[in-house]
Structures are given as structure tokens and as C-alpha cells.
Structure of Protein kinase domain-containing protein:
Amino acid sequence: MAGTGGVGMSGLVAFDGVAIRRCNRLARESLRNGAHFIVDRSHGFCTYRRRTAQAEELCAELLPDPDRFLEEGELLAGRGNSCRIARVEIAGNTYVLKRYDRRGWVYSFRHVFKRSRALRTWLAAWNFRARGIAVPEPLVCLEERSWRFLGRSYLLSEYLQGWQPLTIFWVALSTSEKRLLVTQAATMLGTLHRAAGIHGDTNWDNLLVRREEEGFAFTLVDFDCARVLAKPDPRRARRDIGHFLRDLDRLEPTGGDLKQLFIERWQSAGGFVGA
């Protein structure tokens, strides 16, 4: 699925109402059969995957028992006690597999006609990608359903080699590099908010970074709290950067100028001057 174009550090993607609706339509293609995606049922699961040979092979490997890969994989930090996330090896390659557990029969009943957490995360990731925001590529989403009652759900995504969480990456930066990184991160988040996207948890462990020739590249991870709105919302966008700013205060307690730099650049990139 083609995106609408990325954001460069020297310019902004022009997101208006038409562009936002187009992004949303592109992302919703991931929920139905079409040129880029396949939706099917197999082994008691509703399956969503890319229309690629790689995704077809991965889906066949995962079913009927995705948990065997979690048990053999390397556990990673996850959100709460109702999910499990691991770095796994499938067909000789490395991926990230996340399982969302069933929270009892009430939960299953309430989700008879609602998307699972895995499917909401799948859709959020494709929404972000349609907006030109870098996220790990989602490859396969599985919903375990019996008579529409929801059981476990799973999301398999690419594993990003050579990227570091900003929490770790930050400590080795010079003062000038920190200023550049803050400016670029503010541009990226402001562009997301201009495009009516909300990440929901912008703490620095969810922002992966690596060096590039013109500064730094960023990838967002963990979309459990992500939302896509019909139009930009300055109030929710301002709240969304709160996690980022708290980590900035924590890791750079004397960096008041960096905080102000971030806010000014974010306001400019997001079109939220005065927000």
C-alpha cells in the first residue's frame, strides 16, 4: 500500500481534510480483501495479512499455534499483564510477535462485533504508515474467534535491527546533537498530529532512533493507545507530547531550552501555534 509521502526534516507534508480522509481510506484497505491485503479464516482464526509471498508463508507458519513461537522466543518488555511480546525466529528470519490475551467471557462477549486489540493496533500502524510516519511493518494479524466470540489475538511485525530506544540513544549525544534530535523529533510528532494521528504513549522507549547522514531517523512502536481522528485536535495532540516532555525533563533536568525548542518546533510542524 502506497503512503502519501513521508516528512523530511526540511519540510512538511500538506495535510488537509481531503488528505486525512485519503489516508484513512488507504489504511482501511488492510481490513478487507483487495490488491494489497488478504483477509481469510483458518484454524479458528480470522487472518489479516499483506498480499505477499512472505506474509503468506508467515501466516502458514504461525497457524494453528502461534504460542509455540512465543514460548521459544526472547521475551521483550510489554504493556501490562494481559499481553506478551517476544522476538521470534520464523523461517530463518527475526520478527516481533505480540499476543493479546482474552480477559474473560465478558470481554469476549463485548467484542463479538468489535475489533480485537491486535486488529486495532494493526489498523493504527497502517494509518501511521499511510501518513508517512515510520513504524515497523505489520505483516500478519490473527484473531481467534469461536462463533464470533473473541479469544486471543496476535500481531506479527518486522524486527528492526540496529535501532535503539531514545532512552539509551540520548546519553551518548553531544549538546548540538541533542538540539538537532529534539528538533527532528518535534517535526515528526507535529506532522503526525497535523495528520490527525495520536500515538498515545510517546515515552522514549517507544521512539526508536538511528543515525543518518542528515541527522537522525525515527520509528514509532507500541500502538496500543493510538487513535486516528477525523481532524487535528490541538488539545489531544498537546496531551500526546506529554510523555515525550516528561522523559526529556527526567533525562535532561537542566534542559529547559531543549523543552522550549521542542514545543516551538512541534507547534510549527503541527500548525498548533498557541496550543
